[in-house]
Amino acid sequence: MMLLSIENLRTYFYSRPRRAFVRSVDGVSLHVAPGETLGIVGESGSGKSVTALSAAGLVSGAPGVIGGRIQLKSRNLLDGLERYVKVEERDGRVMAVEKDERGWRRHAETSMQGVRGKEIAMIFQNPRSALNPYSTVGRQLVETIRLHTRFKTENESKERALHWLERVRIDSPRLRFDNFPFGMSGGMCQRAMLAMALCAEPSLLIADEPTTGLDATIQSRIVELLAELKAETGTATLLISHDISVIQRLADRVAVMYGGTVVETGSAAQVLAPRAQVRHPYTAALLASIPSTETIRRKSYLQAIEGEVLDTIEVPRGCRFYGRCDRVTEAVRSRCAGLEPPLAEVAPGHKLRCWLYPA
What we know:
Mean pLDDT: 91
Strand order of the largest sheet: 8-9-10-3-11-12-14-13
Number of strands: 14
Low-confidence stretches: none
Helix content: 25-40%
Structural class: alpha/beta
Number of helices: 13
Order of helices and strands: EEEHEEEEHEHHHHHEHEHEEHHHHEE
Shape: globular
């Protein structure tokens, strides 16, 4: 049984200047098993963070989530969405959306009670801005513990907060307990956010770019800490990162996103292995654009991905990566340009959205 199953999720935003929908998440399907870490990679604008925010019920802006299913254990977090959304489609494209945003927000907040913070916890890429600047780190941690755990008294919750500050390796936890976020470094704030996310022992942790904005040494320590806590707690993790080395270190499985959809998914070995024979052209381009021991040994140049990230307002009829792909052959060109490929299984557990690899 899967802990989290996302099926055909669509999260759109309306661009008033262009009078069209931004298809930020466009038919995404993912799953996370208990105790597993799923890494999501892709360039900025590929839909990674919006997918995570949709799963946590934190999307702001209309129309937001307009379709799909988000199943946490036996509970559909989007149950009842169809009562608030009416979608008009033509030739498979969304032409208009009518959504009772206020009604859906009230419904969603009620359905997320006991889920967000308790079953699903999230750490953000800018921890200092995510923390309340007017409250001490200790006070924020105590509030979380009293709200989501059995530790309700002041003394119990404070001792539990200190326990978690020690567990995330914050130096001088009793001193840091009384610090405000602005008095702590970025690395310390990220550790405090991690303590706040894990103190209720959630089923699922969503980590959105947890090492962004930190220097290399601190990044390495945060990655080591995440690895240690994963082994200790067994919490399933949805890990989003631009840094493929972080995904390689922590993820059991990987999903590669481009243009609001998943273009490749499989085990970390299948997707990110240096000499994998079957790989989506976009995944290959991502790996070729980052330094590795192989490129350093050969003293070879990194390869930039030509072109711009797909504008998800102007989604092409065919493959979303077609305009930037350097592997198109004459045998598949017409299909690449005119028909979007399905996410097809090319090996057990390994799926690709590419006409070069027919199912």
